[in-house]
Amino acid sequence: ASGGSGGGSGDYQAKSSDFSVGVSEYMFGVNTAGGTVTATLPACASAGAGKQYVIKDVGGQAGSNNIEIETNGSEKIDGAGSANIMVASGSMTVMTDGSNWFVIGVS
Q: What is the rounded end-to-end Cα distance, in angstroms, of the chain?
């Protein structure tokens, strides 16, 4: 089944090193105490239009050790090749239209 769903409650992944985002995953708590962490999004076509991901700095260290959100291949996030969480305890929600990614929320 292709994307579409936002995931839902209970789908939480804890990360502290670089990772690839799974199509069926939804929410990521990232701890950057050990350094910058890169999250690589899946291909938009694989995720499916409407798919969303939430990435949160749970360690409170993104002000000094950023969380980098990278795309698959030549896909873009709001026209850029990547997006960054650069504030302590910040978060970002992205969604796809099936071709590219868009930031729909930050904190």
A: 31
Helix (H/G/I), strand (E/B), else coil: 46: helix
DSSP single-letter state for residue 42: P
For 92, the token pair is: 């970002």
- Residue 103's identity, in one-letter code, is V
Torsion of CA 11, 17, 18, 21, to 10 degrees: 0
CB 58 within 8 A of CB 86: no
pTM: 0.90
User: Could you give the C-alpha distances from 51 to 30, 34, 76, 84, in angstroms and in order?
Assistant: 20, 29, 15, 19
Express each pLDDT in 74-104 by its tens digit.
999 999 999 999 999 999 999 999 999 999 9
